[in-house]
Amino acid sequence: MFKGLLLSCLLIGGFCCSCSKKNNPAANPAPPAKVFYNYNTFVMGSDLSYVNEVQDYGGVYKDSGVVKDPFVIFKNHGNNTVRVRLWHNPDWMKALNGGKMYSDLYDVEKTIQRAKAAGMAVNLDIHYSDTWADPDHQSIPAAWAGLSLSVLKDSVYNYTMAVLNYLKTKNLVPEMIQVGNETNSGMLWPVGKTSGSDFTAFCTLLKSGIKAVRDFSTTSTIKPQIILHVAQLQNAAFWCSKVITNGGVTDFDIIGLSHYSKWGTINAMADITANIKSLKTTYGKKVMLVETGYAFTTAGADSYNNLIDASSMVAGYPITQEGQLAYMKELTQAVINGGGSGVMYWEPAWITSSLKISLGYRQQLGKYVLIRFWWQYFTGNRLYDLGV
Predict the structure, then answer these.
(1) Rounded Cα gap, residues 340 and 333, in angstroms
(2) Which pLDDT tens digit goes with each residue over 191-206?
(3) What is the CATH number of the domain that holds 117?
């Protein structure tokens, strides 16, 4: 069923009725109407960075057995925001893909165009690297190697401005911009790497990227909200204190968090709510999960290793379709209860195909694909904290 792909429609539980109930409207109330939220009310988003590449390599997306554009599938099921990563110059991909690069500016342009054509907002995730940037990898782009901090901060500014100005010429300005990805220990290593409590160089680089977005916004109808990104809730308080309180980085809009139970020490829903509430209250910023996910199976579907296994399970949420749905529903409610502003699922459309990935990041994603669009369960009375 999942070979080649399937993103199935949400199963809105049917029910059996007796003949007498079928003829009695009072005994057969209509199911609640679906509520589709604007991203400014609450972000219900997905990172779809791999879709172009997957489709180029034979991936097929279906909704109820019908082949459809995956961006339209997501939109039709309540997704209101698409996240897309941008690498500076991923030249290393050419050897894997017949000379073609992905996650460069032109691939990102295509993703944003597809997202906006389907009626969704966009979160542009600038990695400031030629490859994956995360807590353990923040490699400086090859073109910037050896630059001093004073020159590098200008490079960050000019590059950020150039990207946004290019997208503006295409009428593709993103609604949100991430200045860095999972920057727990800084970015643009070694210059911007943090050392203990010393975040000075990193904060200088952040401020430069932020200034570029703000300066761009003065000439743009769409004024992107700025997201700063730290991985895992247990790291957020320390990181925010060093960046915001000590580092003086205050001109941004959203504290973005990665939350994966496999690497998290804060997994109880009540604790997630408490941490989000604390961050929002302490710093006066929106708080959002910009990356999360939960598995529905540990079975394999190709020759690659599984990233998620039984040890990743959170108590009370089995690694099944039902467990995945329950986890995502309750995680989203936990974010809402804490006053958070959104949840983005990481790469739910990354499916098994013939595409080639290096650096150990290729894992069997069949078990990680979001099969049920949990946000459709959040009808008006569920989002009570949002007043909608």
Answers:
(1) 9
(2) 999 999 999 999 999 9
(3) 3.20.20.80
Catalytic status, residue 291:
yes
Of the listed 291, 322, 330, 347, which one is catalytic?
Answer: 291
Choose, from 53, 182, 322, 347, the residue flagged as catalytic.
182
Whether residue 5 has pLDDT greater than 90 = no
Condensed to tens digits (0 to 9), the pLDDT of residues 48-103 reads 999 999 999 888 899 988 999 999 999 999 999 999 999 999 999 999 888 999 99
Say how many domains are in the chain. Answer: 1
Q: Residue 13 falls within a domain, yes or no?
A: no
347 is catalytic: no
Quote the domain boundaries for residue 340.
19-386
Q: Band the pLDDT of 149: cuts 50, 70, 90.
A: very high
